[in-house]
Design brief:
Layout lengths: L10 H13 L6 H14 L3 E5 L2 H11 L7 E4 L6 H8 L3 E4 L22 E5 L10 H11 L2 E5 L7 E2 L2 E2 L5 E5 L12 E5 L2 H10 L21 H31 L5 E2 L12 E5 L7 H10 L26 H7 L2 E4 L7 H13 L1
Parallel strand pairs: 2-3, 2-4, 4-5, 5-8
Antiparallel strand pairs: 1-9, 6-7, 8-9, 10-11, 11-12
Length: 356
């Protein structure tokens, strides 16, 4: 079986964890600080703040920017639900903007029509490892004085015109096991704004600038040194991982030549957290039929995402006005692209798509 994702854990990570356990410093210690400094340098920002997950990174970033009840935040309906949930956590309202049918990212040309006096921020999601159109998004944000919080949870190392995602506004990343690098679990915020940095540091640790002195309402969103130790070693290998993902994606694109199956359209440096194809009506078989063929051949696959967010129960009362996202959710299918694919795995994938 070729899995859809496969975290690369070696003796290097095991040894790093063992050293932390022996040290006795397990939560938000030297290893967390080391990861924060290294990750900020990698992204190209002054600061980063490690958190317990990508979701908590988004939540903290929103609160640090003053987003709260009565505010509206523009984002994509075609992403993992935590993007929208983090807005609800603040008492604000997510407003969904339709997506580009080729990149699956938020369609920047449709953002302006959703802006009103309550709009305070935009969360562009760099989906599957490819950057959104940050020139247009930044231009709109500056025009309307909106905060930009990048959901870069799937785009570690992706670039837009030579600049890494997570460095245009306030960036939020996830270190969940299926990401391009992992810490087992965890997240991180990137920023050049010292005020946001200081506020985020307080928010993730009970609002404490010093022990038992609580100046604001905060949360227990800290990262452990155990997770940070894994993250440090994974970050050292991230560029190698991304290079392999890009090579695997190129191989897949070269060997999928089936009418009606659309391979990913690349507009910027794409680091392929997922390799996602579209099965259109012109294809000789349906998505369901292709999934059965993949299952029979022992090839992992998954639908990211089977429905847009506003069809999930917590969003049942939201407007259903993103037809492109709804259409795409019925067509997409992700297949293995992770860096642990062997030559034999790639050959099996090639032979599969040549035989169907």
């Amino acid at each position: 079986m070729i899995p859809i994702a496969k975290p690369d854990m070696t003796d290097v990570e095991v040894q790093a964890v063992a050293e932390v356990l022996k040290s006795g410093m397990l939560v938000q210690g030297k290893k967390v600080k080391e990861l924060e400094e290294a990750f900020a340098k990698f992204i190209g920002t002054k600061y980063s703040i490690a958190t317990s997950s990508g979701t908590t990174a988004l939540h903290v970033a929103l609160i640090a920017h003053g987003i709260g009840p009565g505010d509206e935040v523009l984002t994509s309906p075609f992403t993992f639900i935590s993007t929208a949930n983090s807005i609800l956590f603040c008492g604000a309202k997510p407003v969904f903007v339709d997506i580009d049918p080729d990149t699956f990212n938020i369609d920047a040309s449709k953002i302006q029509e959703k802006i009103n006096s309550k709009t305070k921020a935009i969360i562009p999601v760099h989906l599957f490892g490819q950057s959104c159109d940050m020139d247009k998004i930044t231009e709109i944000a500056e025009k309307y004085r909106l905060v930009v919080i990048e959901d870069a949870c799937q785009s570690h190392g992706a670039e837009y015109k030579g600049k890494k995602t997570g460095s245009f506004g306030t960036g939020c990343f996830s270190f969940y096991p299926t990401k391009n690098m992992t810490a087992g679990e965890g997240g991180i915020i990137t920023t050049n704004d010292e005020e946001i940095y200081n506020k985020a540091c307080l928010l993730r640790d009970h609002g404490m600038p010093e022990r038992y002195n609580h100046t604001i309402l905060g949360y227990n969103y800290r990262m452990t040194d155990i997770h940070a130790a894994i993250g440090i070693k994974q970050l050292e290998k991230l560029e190698e991982y991304n290079k392999k993902r890009i090579e695997n994606a190129q191989f897949l694109t070269e060997n999928i030549n089936i009418p009606g199956i659309i391979t990913p359209k690349i507009q910027h440096k794409h680091v392929f957290n997922q390799y996602t194809i579209k099965i259109t009506p012109e294809c000789k078989f349906s998505r369901k039929e292709l999934m059965q063929k993949l299952k029979n051949a022992g090839i992992g696959h998954f639908i990211y995402y089977p429905c847009v967010i506003y069809y999930q129960e917590p969003y049942a009362d939201y407007a259903k006005d993103c037809p492109i996202a709804e259409k795409i959710s019925k067509q997409v299918l992700s297949i293995p692209v992770h860096p642990k694919l062997s030559n034999e795995d790639l050959q099996k994938l090639k032979e599969f798509f040549q035989s169907i």
